[in-house]
Amino acid sequence: MRRASEKDELDSLQEDIARFRERDARSRVSSSSSASEKSTSGVQQIVDKILVANFFIICGFLAWLVAGVVQKSTTDSTAWLDTWLALWQPLIQPSLGLEMLGAILSGLAGKYLKK
């Protein structure tokens, strides 16, 4: 009686091993077919990192603007605000545009690449 239960356990273990090997073979096939997705994912990760850095730069510009407004209201000096306004068109606007464009493209790429 003991031998029958041991044989059943052994058969069960061998079936499990066969299932795991089959699953492993399927995962290897799917991972080799997704090599192009990994390179696209790598590019998307770099773009995402650039967008995050740009976001914090934009937050710095916003803090600079707030500091300039506070300086003007408290001391009637406009040095910080004038400098910020001089950088508005050549630096701050393109940074905002890049952030908006990157966010839209990143969202669209994420949506269509998952399909």
Report on the structure:
This protein is an all-alpha fold and 115 residues long. Helix content is 94%, strand content 0%. Helix 2 runs antiparallel to helix 3. It is rod-shaped and about 95 Å long. The protein starts with a helix and ends with a helix. The model has no long low-confidence stretch (mean pLDDT 86).
Globular, elongated, flat, extended or rod-shaped: what is the shape?
A: rod-shaped
Give the strand content.
under 5%
Helix content: over 70%
What order do the SSEs take from the amino end to the carboxyl end, as H and E?
A: HHH
Helix count, DSSP H or I runs of 4 or more residues:
3
Tell me about the largest β-sheet.
none
Topology readout:
Blueprint (H helix, E strand, L loop, with lengths): L1 H32 L1 H41 L3 H35 L2
Helix pairs in contact: 2-3
Key terms for this structure?
115 residues, mainly alpha, single chain
In short:
The protein contains three helices and no strands. The chain has helices at 2-33, 35-75, 79-113.
